[in-house]
Structures are given as structure tokens and as C-alpha cells.
């Protein structure tokens, strides 16, 4: 025991020695080089991850998919790098059917996809989401989630006018995605020796994973025989076709797994070949520690030093090394030195080449946020108004400033197993760092116990994972960064001579005229190849623009050739869909059919279901401020600011917005390069219609509905590092508000393009954030005769807590009775995650 303790202390202490002397000790010096190389990779190749929270798990044509995006780096801290998120809906033919481009503010944003039955059909889809930076590492590391979309829509031909005496006949059959075939004999079983290799005479754990023809797991059992057909081990999968067994291979022997199939048949698969000599790496966990065991063949003793490196999020968390003098070395490392999630342990041989590797999942529940939901009364009736107080703290009870999203569904209409969910925990901590499909990812995060811990360890033992190879890291052979963080969209093209054989025009002058408000004009010059580029456009999809060009001498006999945007190719095939969910999905579709039928009878099907943002009755706000901020995307909440200016306050402004606001904002000073909050040396962060990083000169004063000022505090903290100097939130006027009813003067006439210029439309750009439709049963004008059969009762993507850790939500229940399910999840400014599922009753 004393000898073992001595080995533990020697091996563990080398991490400390690395800080003392990196020049005289070659082991420590090499470990320092390994750590420095990985740190260089982390700094030069930024890695972002995406999580999407959806309002519900599956949909019908006619629905709207509502989503909140969280983009993080390193230890799940919100990323300030990318300001655009791309999200695609991809069908089972690997074709992109819908693409969204969502603005990100301090790493989060939200949007929606309308499932138009004229453009889509029922089927198995998947949604992928990524930033431009993520394209450098490939589609494997994009967010991907399988989504079943059925068809519960009534045929359009059955919709009758209100004066018709004919009854609508709605077919009872409901289209569902076609299930994939699964031949019981078509089963693939892979075996994964712990650390990488089986070595003769060393006992090792062997993980295995069984997958059927439909891409989903198959539960199996069997046994292992040697070359003489002698049984040496047995195995039984535990969850999702995954399990493990122990095996000590012998020299000059081979091993075969015999898998038992349905009907009494068997399938034989050879296990990986064993090495005559080598090193093995085994990792286990106790409540407080990670225990690493290294075993070596006799022939490797006293041949050199071995080294152990543990890294998580591309940051070295532990290093150690020593001369290999014994067959077995064990080291114990406290868990609290590792972040929650995947940690990679790599063993380097005497030549400092990686010889064994092991992934381990570290749990840290004490780092989770505590989300408490308190309803205003113990139970509700149909169509009652519900109010929830949200209180978020850390484990010590301290209030948390963070961003969260909240969905409420009728549990009877949208039944779903929590184990099948894609949650902020299962995604950011697990699947985003594993290569390949993980079945029932949230299974490992519900009802945590020793069995779940063992099954989770089996998962990471068998799941492939590579964001880099050590050979490339040590050689500083980092991937070329073709794609960079986006702050806006680009418009690129070429100017050529207007001749039969056009040639590029170098030094040509190009003007871009954008049809927004009073018009925006940008200028540039073509390069030697005749190419031009306008970058960082914070404009919405569909914005109209014109391009005017001349050659270097001002002659107009040139042509403009605009580049077509290149979409991200689909290389990751459609994800498998668990048909075991069909019963719950059928329940959802049947309820959707009833809802759509009622809407169709009342002539509201396309007004509400396909365009949830359309409100047939104009809402009359009580004050000018309510009118001005009703479309505000202030992360702290519309109108929750230190000061609010409305469009009435800005009447008569004929100058640019910078000069218009100078002198009108309390505690804010105007300078040549922007607006400064008092006491700060850098200008305030400008957000226009939810899009950050804008310039004041890109906004016309007469187009502004409201200006909200956040001079600091918890509200500005929601914008992360961007909010350090204060935030100015500008909301422009929208077409659904009659501003002239409140103004004493008409708006300044808009931009008119010069005659004769061809007009274009931005094919890509930010998608308009739509407002989730909610009936207001407190309004006497609301039609209460129509049955309220909603499945998603409430969706709020921007539940943002203040300095007290509090937020709130109000909504009206539907006609469905029974259990309603509330799901709220999100994170704070330090990357700490939280999720809470809550049920309440409607009678």
C-alpha cells in the first residue's frame, strides 16, 4: 500500500513540478510543449457550439417551429464572436427546404420556421444550426436534431365560406413520416477496447455498441470465445445497445463475439486484434475523484518516460509524467479540477506519441443553476390567466443574471418522454463533444444514479470523437480558417466592360444604394481583378438595393455581376428517427387535426396557424410609450430601460440620429465617433431591431419608433462584454402600427432610387423575428366562441433575469384540461446551465 501511495504522489506531483522547472527536466519540458501547443490551437481556432431550445418536440404542417439559440465557447460561456446564426430545415432527401439567418446578441437569439403545407410535405426532417466559424471544423460539429413533421391539415378544397350550408368533411387519416425498415438480422456491432488497444496479458474493459438497419440501437447479449471455442466472457447491453465487459487476452490467441439474435440464430464477429506489447489506459470515478490506471508490458519497463495529459474544451486541466519502472501506475485526481462535461485523457509513450486515449464524462451538479417557478394560484380553469414568477439562483442561493427561454404545452396533446429530449445539458455538455448520433441523450441526465453513471461511461467509451489529432497539434498544423466570425452579410461581385467579350474593370467605382428609410449609400473601388465587396450588412432578407458602377474615369459603359450566395452543403445524412415515439406523435397529430378543423370552420386556419403573428384585431396601447416599444427587442424587456425616447420625442429631427440624440439623453454625451454614457471612455453599444453592432449613421431619425438607454447594471450585463459601456436600443417603425394617428407631422419621404438603375433584393439577410400569437381573454373584443385547442400554450424566448435573479411570465390557458408542462432552460453569463420542468393543472 505504501508503494502504491508513493507512485500516486510521484505521478501527481509532476504537474506542480511543471511550474517549477521546464528547462532541466525533459519530461516536464515536453509536457509544457504539449500544453502550449494545445493552448495555441485553442487561441487560433475558436470553437463555438450551438444549442437550440424548441417549443415542442414534433410538429404538423401548418405549425410554426419556435426556437431560442444559445451560442457558446469554451466552458459554455456565451460567445461574443459570431453575430449571425444559420439554421436549416433539411428533409429526408438531404435537401435544405428552409434556411434562417438569425441575429445574435452576446451569443443568443431566437426565430421561427413556418411549416407551410404548400411548400413542405410530411416526413422525417432534421434541423441543423451553425455559425460561420463552425464551418472550419465541418458539419459534424453543427447542432443537429431529428424532427418528425406530420400532416394534420384539412384539404384546402373543404374550406367553405361562412354562408355555405355544406358541411366540411375532414378525413380521419393523418399523414405521418414513413418508418425506416429494420431487418432483425441486419445488425452492426462494434467493439472498443478501453484506451484504444487490447494488449496481451493485460486485463482491459471492452465496450460495444449495436445498431440496427434503421440507425437505431438494438439490445443484444452474447459471449466471447477464443480460437479453441472456449467461452472467456459474456456480455449484455444495458441501454441503447451499449455495454461493456472485461477481457484478458493471451498471446497467440484470437477472440470472437457470438451475438444472440431473435429466433435463436447467432452472429459471429471477430474482436479487434491484440498487441503483443503496449500500454493501456483505464479511467474510473469515485464520488470525489477520477482514478487513472496505466498498465504496461514487461518489455516496456525502464525504456523511457510516460506522460498523461487531460484536456477539456481544448484547455489542459492536468499533466503528469514519470519514468516507467512498474507494470501498473495509478493516480487519483480530484474531480473539482475538471469542468462538467467531456474530458479527454491521453497517454503519451516515451517517444511522446499518443498511445492510448479515453473520454470521461465529469458530473458537477453543484454548478447547476437553480430555477424556481412559482404560480400565482394552485390551479387554473380553462382560459384563466396564469402568472409565473421565475427565480434563478446558484447553489448558494445568490441571484443570477441570465438568459432563458420558456415553453408551455398541453401535456395531454403533446406527450413526450423526457429521456428523448435534446436539452441544454445533454447538448452542450455531451452530444456537442461526441461524434455521431446519440440516442435518447437526456436519458443520462434524468434520475441520476449509479446505473446511469455506468451507462454514461459506456457511451463515451464507445462514441467516436475528434476535434483534432495530437500529431497536428504537436506539429502546429492547425486547420486553415476559411470561415470567420460574421458581423453581418456580404455583397460581392465584379465590374466588367459592357462588350461582347467583357473584361474586368480595375479601379472601377461602385455605389450601393439601399432602400431603407431615407436611403443609405455606400461606396467602394474594384481591385485589380475587377472585384468589389461590401461587408457587414446588418440588413433583413428582402431589403431592396441598387448598384451603380463606372470605370475609373467615370464612364458608365460597364456591367455589374453579383455573386450568388453559396449555401453550406449537406454532408451529414438525415438522422435516424425513433419510431417508438409514434404513439405519442399520433396523439399530437390527432389533436392538431381537431384544432385545424375548428380554425378552418371559422375561416382562421391560414390567418393564425400559418402566420401566427397575424392578429386580426388591432391592439390599442394606452400610452405612446407602449406604442413605441411594442416591437422592442430589449433583452431586459420592452421599455425596461433607464430612459426611453419615443417617435413623438423625435418629431422634427432633420439631422442624422447621432446629432438628433445628442442633448436629449440623460447621462449620455455625444461625440464625433458616437454616444458615450457618463463615466465611460468607449462609445455605447448600438442595437437596431435586435441586431447588435450597428452604426447610428445607418438609421434615419424619421424611421425610429423608440430609443431605449441602458447605462449599466444587470440589464446592460445581458449584452455581455458589449454592454460594458452601456447600450442604446433602437426600434424602427413597423407597418402594423399607424404612427400618423399619434404624430402631428407625416414621416419624412423615403428613399427613391435613381431612374434607370436595376433593382435587386438581398437573397440572404436577417429573418424577421415573429411574435408568438397569444389570445387575450381579458380583452372583451376577443372572440371567445372559437374552441381554443392550442398545443403550444405559451412561448417566450427572452426570459431574462435581473440583478435580483427574477423574471416573470403571463399568458392565458387554452380549453384543454389536465396537466400542462412548463419547460424553462438557459444559462448565466459565466456558462452555468439551468433547466427546470414544471407541471400544473387546468380544470
Structure in a nutshell:
With 843 residues, the chain is mainly beta. The model is unreliable at 1-23, 157-172, 609-622 and 744-751 (pLDDT under 50).
Sheet with the most strands: spatial strand order: 2-9-8-5-6
Summarize the main sheet.
Answer: 5 strands, mixed
Into which percent range does the helicity of residues fall?
10-25%
Structural classification: mainly beta
The radius of gyration computed from the alpha-carbon positions, rounded to a whole number of angstroms, is: 30 Å
Form type: globular
Strand coverage percent: 35-45%
Describe this protein's structure.
The chain is mainly β and 843 residues long. Helix content is 12%, strand content 35%. The strands form 13 sheets. Strands 2-9-8-5-6 form a 5-stranded mixed sheet, with helices on one face. It is globular and about 90 Å long. Residues 1-23, 157-172, 609-622 and 744-751 have low confidence and may be disordered.
Amino acid at each position: 500500500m505504501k508503494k502504491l501511495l508513493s507512485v500516486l504522489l510521484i505521478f501527481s506531483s509532476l504537474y506542480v513540478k511543471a511550474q517549477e522547472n521546464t528547462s532541466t527536466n525533459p519530461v516536464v519540458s515536453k509536457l509544457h510543449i504539449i500544453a502550449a501547443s494545445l493552448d495555441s490551437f485553442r487561441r487560433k481556432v475558436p470553437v463555438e457550439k450551438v444549442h437550440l431550445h424548441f417549443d415542442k418536440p414534433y410538429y404538423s404542417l401548418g405549425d410554426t417551429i419556435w426556437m431560442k439559440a444559445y451560442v457558446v465557447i469554451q466552458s459554455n460561456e456565451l460567445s461574443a464572436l459570431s453575430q449571425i446564426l444559420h439554421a436549416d430545415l433539411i428533409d429526408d432527401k438531404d435537401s435544405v427546404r428552409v434556411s434562417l439567418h438569425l441575429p445574435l446578441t452576446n451569443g443568443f437569439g431566437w426565430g421561427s420556421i413556418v411549416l407551410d403545407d404548400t411548400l413542405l410535405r410530411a416526413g422525417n426532417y432534421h434541423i441543423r444550426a451553425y455559425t460561420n466559424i463552425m464551418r472550419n471544423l465541418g458539419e459534424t460539429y453543427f447542432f443537429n436534431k431529428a424532427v418528425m413533421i406530420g400532416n394534420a391539415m384539412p384539404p384546402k378544397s373543404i374550406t367553405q365560406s361562412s354562408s355555405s350550408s355544406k358541411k366540411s368533411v375532414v378525413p380521419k387519416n393523418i399523414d405521418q413520416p414513413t418508418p425506416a425498415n429494420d431487418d432483425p438480422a441486419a445488425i452492426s456491432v462494434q467493439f472498443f477496447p478501453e484506451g484504444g488497444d487490447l494488449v496481451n496479458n493485460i486485463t482491459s474493459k471492452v465496450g460495444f455498441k449495436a445498431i440496427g438497419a434503421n440507425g437505431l440501437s438494438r439490445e443484444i447479449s452474447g459471449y466471447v470465445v477464443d480460437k479453441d471455442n472456449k467461452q472467456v466472457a459474456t456480455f449484455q447491453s444495458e441501454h441503447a445497445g451499449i455495454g461493456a465487459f472485461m477481457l484478458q487476452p493471451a498471446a497467440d490467441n484470437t477472440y470472437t463475439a457470438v451475438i444472440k439474435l431473435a429466433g435463436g440464430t447467432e452472429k459471429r464477429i471477430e474482436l479487434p486484434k491484440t498487441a503483443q506489447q503496449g500500454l493501456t489506459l483505464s479511467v474510473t470515478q469515485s464520488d470525489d475523484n477520477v482514478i487513472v490506471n496505466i498498465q504496461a508490458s514487461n518489455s516496456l519497463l525502464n525504456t523511457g518516460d510516460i506522460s498523461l495529459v487531460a484536456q477539456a474544451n481544448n484547455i489542459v486541466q492536468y499533466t503528469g509524467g514519470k519514468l516507467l519502472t512498474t507494470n501498473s501506475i495509478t493516480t487519483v485526481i480530484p474531480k473539482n479540477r475538471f469542468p462538467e462535461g467531456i474530458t479527454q485523457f491521453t497517454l503519451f509513450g516515451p517517444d511522446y506519441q499518443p498511445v492510448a486515449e479515453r473520454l470521461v464524462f465529469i458530473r458537477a451538479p453543484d454548478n447547476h443553476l437553480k430555477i424556481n417557478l412559482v404560480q400565482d394560484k394552485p390551479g387554473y380553469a380553462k382560459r384563466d390567466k396564469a402568472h409565473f414568477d421565475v427565480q434563478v439562483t446558484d447553489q448558494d442561493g445568490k441571484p443570477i443574471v441570465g438568459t432563458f427561454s420558456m415553453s408551455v404545452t398541453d401535456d395531454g396533446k403533446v406527450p413526450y418522454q423526457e429521456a428523448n429530449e435534446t436539452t441544454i445539458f445533454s447538448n452542450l455538455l455531451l452530444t456537442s463533444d461526441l461524434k455521431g448520433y446519440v440516442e435518447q441523450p437526456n436519458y443520462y441526465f434524468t434520475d441520476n444514479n449509479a446505473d446511469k453513471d455506468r451507462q454514461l461511461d459506456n457511451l463515451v467509451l464507445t462514441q467516436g470523437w475528434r476535434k483534432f489529432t495530437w500529431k497536428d497539434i504537436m506539429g502546429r498544423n492547425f486547420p486553415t480558417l476559411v470561415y470567420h466570425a460574421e458581423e453581418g452579410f456580404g455583397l460581392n461581385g465584379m465590374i466588367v466592360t459592357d462588350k461582347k467579350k467583357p473584361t474586368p474593370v480595375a479601379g472601377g467605382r461602385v455605389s450601393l444604394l439601399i432602400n431603407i428609410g431615407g436611403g443609405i449609400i455606400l461606396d467602394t473601388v474594384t481591385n485589380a481583378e475587377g472585384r468589389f465587396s461590401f461587408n457587414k450588412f446588418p440588413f433583413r432578407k428582402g431589403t431592396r438595393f441598387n448598384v451603380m458602377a463606372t470605370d475609373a474615369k467615370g464612364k458608365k459603359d460597364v456591367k455589374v455581376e453579383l455573386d450568388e450566395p453559396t449555401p453550406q452543403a449537406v454532408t451529414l445524412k438525415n438522422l435516424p428517427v425513433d419510431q417508438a415515439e409514434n404513439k405519442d406523435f399520433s396523439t399530437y397529430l390527432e389533436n392538431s387535426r381537431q384544432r385545424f378543423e375548428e380554425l378552418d370552420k371559422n375561416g382562421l386556419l391560414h390567418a393564425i396557424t400559418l402566420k401566427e403573428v397575424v392578429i386580426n384585431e388591432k391592439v390599442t396601447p394606452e400610452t405612446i410609450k407602449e406604442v413605441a416599444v411594442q416591437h422592442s427587442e430589449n433583452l431586459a424587456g420592452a421599455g425596461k430601460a433607464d430612459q426611453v425616447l419615443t417617435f413623438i420625442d423625435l418629431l422634427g429631427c432633420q439631422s442624422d440620429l447621432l446629432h438628433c440624440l445628442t442633448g436629449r439623453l440623460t447621462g449620455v454625451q455625444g461625440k464625433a465617433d458616437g454616444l458615450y454614457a457618463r463615466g465611460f471612455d468607449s462609445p455605447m453599444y448600438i442595437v437596431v431591431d435586435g441586431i447588435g453592432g450597428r452604426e447610428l449613421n445607418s438609421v434615419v431619425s424619421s424611421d425610429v419608433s423608440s430609443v431605449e438607454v441602458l447605462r449599466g447594471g444587470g440589464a446592460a450585463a445581458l449584452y455581455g462584454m458589449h454592454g460594458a459601456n452601456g447600450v442604446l436600443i433602437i426600434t424602427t417603425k413597423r407597418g402594423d402600427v399607424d404612427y400618423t394617428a399619434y404624430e402631428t407631422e407625416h414621416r419624412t419621404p423615403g428613399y427613391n432610387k435613381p431612374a434607370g438603375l436595376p433593382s435587386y433584393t438581398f437573397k440572404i439577410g436577417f429573418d424577421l423575428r415573429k411574435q408568438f400569437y397569444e389570445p387575450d381573454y381579458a380583452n372583451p373584443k376577443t372572440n371567445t366562441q372559437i374552441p381554443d385547442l392550442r398545443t403550444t400554450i405559451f412561448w417566450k424566448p427572452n426570459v431574462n433575469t435581473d440583478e435580483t435573479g427574477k423574471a416573470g411570465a403571463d399568458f392565458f390557458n387554452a380549453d384543454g384540461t389536465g396537466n400542462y408542462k412548463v419547460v424553462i432552460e438557459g444559462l448565466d453569463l459565466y456558462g452555468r446551465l439551468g433547466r427546470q420542468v414544471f407541471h400544473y393543472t387546468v380544470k
